[in-house]
Structures are given as structure tokens and as C-alpha cells.
Amino acid sequence: MLSATFLTVAKVFPRDFLFAQSTEDIPTDLHYFSAQEYLILQALAERIIGPTPQGELGVKEIDVSRRADQFLATADLEIQDQFHQLLTVFNDPFFTFLFDLRFSSFIKMAPEDKDSYFWRTG
């Protein structure tokens, strides 16, 4: 019951407040993710994988979010719902404040803040 209340509160924030990046690099043929979820997962992957040596494929070249979109589009509906909730909770300023006393969405944080928040909540 409490988690449902928190997720409802998270929906109060306007979406343009949560997302700092432009949507021009987002594929138009996503099957599972919204454009915002695509950006959240891309930002998470960048923090997990970290910088890649010059000449090697990085997160953007591999397109981790597109691969996850293709995989999750065929997943069980319960798994899909849970993953949507996970991305909402992880990125929403309400939850970042609740978990780490930061009032910022994950993808709007500076890289060092993303690392600190991710490794503290992960």
C-alpha cells in the first residue's frame, strides 16, 4: 500500500522537469520503453560500464537501452511492470530525496553524483 502511494506521488512531477537530455538520439521504434525510460537506462548503463578505452565500443555504440527494449518487449507482463516501476523509482526526484536527500532526477545529476547515488542505492 505504501509503495503504491509513493508511486502515485512520483507521478505528480511534470515529466519535462525530470529529463534534461534531448530526445533526438532516441530511437523511434521502441517497443517497450518510453523515451524517458530509454534515457534513464542509458544513463544507468553509462554509470555501470563507465568510460571505455579509446577505440572500443561504449554504451552508446552498443546501444544498451535498445537491446534491453527488445528483450523486455518479449518478457512476462509482470516483469515488464516491475521494470517500469524500478526505472520510475530510481529516477524520480521524490525517491532520490527519500533515498539520498537529493532533489534531482537521476539523469539530471552530475556524473559524480550519479555514481554516488547509484552505488549507494544499488
Q: What do these coordinates show?
A:
- It is a single chain.
- The protein has 8 helices and no strands.
- The protein is an all-alpha fold.
- The radius of gyration is 15 Å and the shape is globular.
- Residues 14-20 have low confidence and may be disordered.
SSE layout:
Blueprint: H1 2-10, H2 15-18, H3 35-49, H4 59-62, H5 64-73, H6 77-91, H7 93-100, H8 111-121
Helix pairs in contact: 3-5
Structural classification = mainly alpha
Distance between the termini: 23 Å
Largest sheet: none
**Strand/helix succession:** HHHHHHHH
Helix fraction, binned, reads 55-70%
Using only C-alpha atoms, the radius of gyration works out to 15 Å
Mean pLDDT: 83
- The number of E-state strands comes to 0
% residues in beta strands? under 5%
Shape field:
globular
Q: Helix count, per DSSP?
A: 8
Low-confidence stretches: 14-20
Which terms would index this structure?
122 residues; mainly alpha
Structure summary:
With 122 residues, this protein is mainly α. The protein contains 8 helices and no strands.
